[in-house]
Each structure stands twice: as structure tokens, then as C-alpha cells.
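Title: [Solved] Isocitrate lyase/phosphoenolpyruvate mutase family protein 3D structure

Original question kept below for reference.
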Amino acid sequence: MSAAALRALHVPGKPLVLANVWDADTAKLVEAAGFPAVATSSVAVAAALGFADGEAAPAGEMFAAAARIAKAVDVPVTVDAESGYGLSGAELAARLRDAGAAGCNFEDTDHATGQVRPVAEQAERIAALRAAAGDGLVINARIDSFRGAETKEALEAGIDRAKAYYDAGADCVYPIHLRTPELIAEFVQGAGGAVNAAAWPGSPGLDGLAALGVARISLGGGLWHYVRKQFETAVAGVAEGKLPY
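Solution (posted by the thread starter after getting help):
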């Protein structure tokens, strides 16, 4: 499915809801439930492959998993590409294209240092990815500067980042650690483009986030954490001689 189809699903106030998956099987279940698009979760995919999140998994294994997911469904797939695995914009665009991705998450954390990249540096990286991908990729530019800093100053700086990322070619921005409803609403108004919000535990919920004007809602690793906990409880019961079914 095309990037155009995925891009059209980003409607402020009537957001695209993404139930993030980690393999072909979960992708098929999401499609069967009626979702118009599938998104991967890097933490979940990496864990399924035996690695920690934060680009600890080999890029080749992450893209191979993405390709299996994209091949398994007929809806557009957006891939959590973390911070790009050290690839150039052209290399990243090619790897995503080969995997069958219609979109990607592209974060501004430098995993080599653990720091958020300067705005101009990340904007340049987004511009390079856009130039290589053309209109064939929906770029969701993740903004990591709100981690532990939900202040007015952080909000203003985050909005400036959003505008720079839009100017560089991002279709949507994702202030992943912004949780306060009032600040999310201010961010949406200030940014002036499509905004992705995370459906964290204790968040305003799907309807509440939609009312704040976001165009996209991600569950991230939420479903994986939930399912993993259920599995952990079930196997503990089996170890005690109790079948869960």
C-alpha cells in the first residue's frame, strides 16, 4: 500500500490509531481487527529478536522483521526505524523501500551519546531522508526533548523543533514524552501540523487525545508489554501445574 494512503489517514481530531506490532502474526491480527494501517514497535521487535531497544539489535535483523510484517498484510506499514541505525538518508530510504514500508518513525536521539541531537542537525537528517524517499515515505519525526521536562520552556523549544522538522520534510511530529493534556493541546496548536501522541497508561485515552487535536495515536510497546505480562503469568501457572486454558 502507498505512502499516500497512509498520509491521508492523518486527520487532526480524527486520528489514525496504531496498535503497534512485533511480528507478522500480530500484524495480521491488527489488520483483521479492521485497522487501516500497521505500525511496528522497535522495543517489541528488538525484544522478539533477543535484543534491547535503542538500536542494540542489528539493523539487518530489524529490517528483515519489518519486511516480513509488510509482506504479511495488505494495509500500509509504518516502521519504527529508531534513529536510523547510523545510515545515511539515502541508505535508510532504500532499506525502508526494500522492506515494503510506507512510512517510518525517525527519532532525534543519538543512541551513541544518549543525547537529543541539535535541531539543525536533525532537520538536516530529515531533509536527507525526504530527498532520497521523495513522496514515497511518510516521515513521523519523533521529538525526544520532553523526557522529564514538561515545562513551558520545553514546550516552546519543542514547538520550534516541530516547525523545523516540518520544514525539513516531516509529515508528522511525535513528542513522545509529552503527557499533560493541556500541553499536548498547546503543542498541537503551536506546531501547526500533524501531531502524533502516545497512548500512555493514564493518558486521556483515545477519545481524549482525539479531542486534543492530534492526527495520530501510537500505542508503542504498550500491547507488547501487556501481552508479555499475560504470558509471564500464564507460564508461571504452568510451572505450578496449572493450565491457563
